[in-house]
């Protein structure tokens, strides 16, 4: 008896607990893998052929599989208990989780999805490690006197392929003011990496809150980037205007301004609203060449339309809120934005999370998207469908169900599913990683089933 107990407890009580849980997971796999290959009836026939004349294993497998919903719940809880506290996985546990991800039946989707989530999380640095790494980079970018930072030293964060958007907001409220400024700049430069930033400036509000202002150009692929007017009678002037506007430095239609500021709570923002919005009160200074080019190519009416086109973006970060649920926060934000609608329009605000096109009400399609990257989802190409966003575990991937637009009173019969994935630095993707890029679809499919 002692000889059999020693091997079991050679890693202590917790080690024995892990061994028992792993054995349960193996037994779950052993049963459920038998029902993966074909329809249920064919699987039962296959089991009978495999174990005849002894039907006991067949009956045990059938009765066990009949309780698959309860087993799935138990297995999910066991995975959470086993992997929740320890980010690193043993080779034995990794092998079992890999087998769980191969379960392809709809009834096993939650287990397969949870196993894949744990495997993905194990390959990513922990939150604490990434937090410490980001803080180290910020502190190394500050000069020896602590008065300013070197933007060149922040490129590692701006161009990093590791997820940092979940870590970065913490540094908006760092004790060191220079770190707060650097964090805001990294957020803007990383979030607007698809755009061409013309300038970026820091300033402080009267209460010491850091604010960053920036100007940027819409990329040529942006759906809101308007083409050069073709109603120009002089062919030489038309050719000149086309060449001029191909240079992004002379495109008033594509010029945008933005601001980013972080407050501890919503009341701080409402108290400082007038000071924040004042940075949009005056239009940016334009060079004489820029003004002359615009006046030459456009008539007076066109120039007026350009001036009246809202071009400003305001990003607000809040550290704390009275409510944790989105559905309770959105009405509060919407009521405030609509109460300031006239001021926002007068200052040319195009987006303060809520779009001007929606009367400053939220477009839920874009919820939880980085504002600067929303256009890359190319939702304009799905204009023939009424879209509904489906929550997805992978924040780099966005899943939508679209119902074909039909006349009022008619039931839609055409449904499509759209998946959009944001990949950073595509020029750095190797062939090996390109092959791995095929993996997100099963995860998206399982997320969809889980959402339903």
In short:
The chain has helices at residues 2-8, 12-32, 40-51, 56-66, 68-83, 91-101, 109-123, 127-141, 155-158, 177-191, 235-246, 266-271, 273-277, 288-297, 300-308, 326-339, 341-346, 431-436, 440-451, and strands spanning 196-204, 210-217, 255-263, 312-318, 349-352, 354-355, 385-390, 397-404, 415-421. The chain is globular and about 85 Å long.
Explained architecture:
The protein has helices spanning 2-8, 12-32, 40-51, 56-66, 68-83, 91-101, 109-123, 127-141, 155-158, 177-191, 235-246, 266-271, 273-277, 288-297, 300-308, 326-339, 341-346, 431-436, 440-451; strands at 196-204, 210-217, 255-263, 312-318, 349-352, 354-355, 385-390, 397-404, 415-421. It is α+β, with helices and mostly antiparallel strands and 452 residues long. The chain has three domains: 2-123, no CATH class; 127-363, no CATH class; 378-452, no CATH class. α2 (12-32) runs parallel beside α6. The longest helix is centred in the first third of the chain and has 21 residues, at 12-32. The chain starts with a helix and ends with a helix. Residues 226-251, 283-303 and 426-441 have low confidence and may be disordered.
């Amino acid at each position: 008896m002692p000889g059999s107990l020693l091997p079991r407890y050679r890693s202590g009580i917790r080690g024995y607990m892990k061994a028992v849980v792993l054995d349960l997971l193996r037994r779950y796999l052993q049963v459920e893998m038998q029902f993966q290959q074909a329809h249920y009836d064919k699987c039962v026939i296959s089991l009978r052929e495999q174990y005849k004349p002894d039907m006991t294993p067949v009956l045990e497998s059938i009765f066990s599989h009949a309780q698959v919903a309860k087993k799935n719940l138990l297995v999910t809880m066991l995975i959470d208990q086993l992997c929740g506290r320890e980010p690193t996985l043993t080779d034995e546990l990794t092998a079992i989780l890999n087998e769980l991800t191969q379960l392809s039946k709809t009834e096993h989707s939650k287990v397969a999805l949870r196993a894949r989530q744990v495997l993905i999380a194990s390959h990513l640095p922990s939150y604490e490690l990434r937090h410490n790494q980001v803080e180290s980079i910020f502190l190394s970018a500050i000069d020896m006197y602590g008065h300013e930072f070197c933007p060149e030293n922040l490129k590692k964060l701006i161009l990093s392929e590791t997820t940092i958007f979940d870590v970065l907001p913490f540094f908006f409220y760092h004790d060191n003011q220079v770190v707060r400024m650097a964090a805001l700049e990294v957020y803007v430069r990383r979030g607007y990496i698809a755009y061409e930033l013309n300038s970026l400036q820091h300033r402080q509000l009267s209460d010491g809150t850091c604010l960053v202002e920036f100007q940027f150009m819409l990329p040529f692929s942006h759906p809101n980037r308007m083409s050069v007017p073709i109603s120009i009678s002089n062919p030489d002037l038309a050719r000149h205007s086309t060449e001029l506007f191909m240079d992004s430095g002379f495109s008033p239609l594509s010029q945008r301004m933005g601001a980013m500021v972080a407050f501890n709570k919503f009341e701080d923002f409402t108290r400082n609203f007038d000071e924040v919005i004042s940075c949009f009160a005056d239009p940016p200074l334009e060079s004489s060449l820029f003004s002359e080019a615009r006046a030459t190519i456009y008539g007076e009416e066109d120039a007026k339309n350009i001036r009246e086109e809202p071009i400003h973006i305001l990003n607000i970060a809040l550290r704390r809120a009275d409510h944790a649920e989105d559905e309770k926060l959105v009405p509060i934000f919407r009521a405030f934005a609509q109460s300031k609608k006239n001021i926002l329009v007068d200052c040319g605000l195009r987006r303060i999370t809520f779009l001007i096109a929606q009367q400053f009400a939220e477009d839920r399609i874009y919820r939880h998207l980085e504002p600067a990257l929303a256009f890359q989802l190319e939702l304009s190409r799905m204009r023939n469908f009424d879209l509904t966003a489906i929550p997805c575990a992978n924040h780099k991937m966005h899943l939508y169900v679209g119902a074909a637009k039909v006349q009022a009173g008619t039931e839609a019969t055409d449904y499509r599913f759209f998946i959009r994935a944001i990949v950073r630095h595509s020029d750095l993707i190797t062939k090996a990683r390109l092959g791995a890029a095929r993996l997100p679809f099963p995860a998206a499919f399982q997320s969809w089933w889980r959402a339903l």
